[in-house]
Amino acid sequence: MTRRAAIEGKPVGSDAYVALEARYGHFTAMQVRDRRTRGLDLHLERLESANLELFGVALDRAAVLGSIRAVLGDDVRDASVRVYVVESGGRPLVMATAAPPFHLSGRPQSVKPVVYQRYLPHIKQAAGFPQAHLIRQVARDGFDEALLTTEDGVISEGAITNLGGFAGGRLIWPDAPMLRGITMGLLQRMDVPQERRPLKVAALPELDQVFLCNSRGVVPVSRVGDVELRQDGELMARVIGFYDAIAGDPLD
Questions:
Q1: Nearest to residue 172, comparing CAs of 182, 163, 181?
Q2: CATH classification of the domain holding 227
Q3: How much is the pTM?
Q4: How many CB atoms lie within 10 A of CB 230?
Q5: Does 104 fall in a domain?
Q6: Where in the sequence is the domain holding 87, given as residue range(s)?
Q7: Which InterPro entries does the UniProt entry name for this protein (predicted)?
Q8: Is 98 exposed, middle or buried (0-12, 13-18, 19+ CB in 10 A)?
Q9: What is the DSSP string of 137-193?
Q10: What is the pLDDT along the chain (252 residues), one digit of tens a residue?
Q11: 3-state DSSP helix/strand/coil percent for the chain, to nearest 5?
Q12: Would you say residue 204 lies in a domain?
């Protein structure tokens, strides 16, 4: 499929999103399969809270869902969809884009720690230059993802992912300012003991399994910097199996 865009529920030219997605605002990203997406309630809650904080008004949920349906049209069942709410003419404008679906390979990922903290990290911001730049920089060094940390190595999140890990049967999440991803929120519904705690890069080799998650899915982390990490296939199979079993919410 070719990239598409819809604004306020109406299809527009395929390049119309370029001028808008760099504006002041926020967004959410989802994978659509058979016109369904996991965690639609979490996506809408994310957009709602960010809209109130950035624009001081309630989210137009009808415009969100209408734009998703419009960008999918009658023919697209699988896609990578983004919903933006950006400032235009002094008011928030809802826009959706659709691109070919992303299929996660499941290949273990490598991460490079980078000292960087996002401004308003709890909001998924429309203009993402810093993260895009960091990913390009670490990719040149042979890494898949940048791991954002403080000066003393406390982990917050990845550039476009959340990081989690297992220790003694407990699911551990970093206790730091971050964007709480939709997939992270879904995995927090797993029936396993979970906790948030300050997590440093130096502590990752002590965990039984480290993974990354975002709208594209869940993948193991095999290396942080030059340090190889433990791999537990059974743990990863359990996490991925839980995620894969989550039913998608209908978009029609």
A1: 163
A2: 3.20.10.10
A3: 0.94
A4: 16
A5: no
A6: 4-99
A7: Aminotrans_IV, Aminotransferase-like, BCAT-like_C
A8: buried
A9: HHHHTT-SEEEEE-TT-BEEEESSSEEEEEETTEEEEE-SS----HHHHHHTTSSS-
A10: 678 888 888 888 766 666 666 689 999 999 999 999 999 999 999 999 999 999 999 999 999 999 999 999 999 999 999 999 999 888 999 999 999 999 888 899 999 999 999 999 999 998 778 899 999 999 999 999 999 999 999 999 999 999 999 999 999 999 999 999 999 999 999 999 999 999 999 999 999 999 999 999 999 999 999 999 999 999 999 999 999 999 999 998
A11: 25, 35, 35
A12: yes
| Contact between residue 161 and residue 182 where contact means Cβ atoms under 8 Å apart | no
Q: Which residue's structure tokens are 């839980």?
A: 242
Residue at which a domain ends, from 66, 81, 99: 99
How is residue 238 written in tokens? 């359990």
Distance CA 1, CA 83 (A): 18
CA distance 80 to 65: 15
Number of Cβ within 10 Å of residue 40's Cβ equals 19
Residues 40 and 116 both lie in one domain: no
Q: Which of 66, 99, 132 is the last residue of a domain?
A: 99
188 shares its domain with 113? yes
Structure token pair of residue 37: 């997406």
Question: Count of CB atoms within 10 A of residue 112's CB?
Answer: 21
Q: Identify whether the C-beta of residue 32 lies closer than 8 Å to the C-beta of residue 90.
A: no
Angle, alpha carbons 112-116-122 (nearest 5°): 110
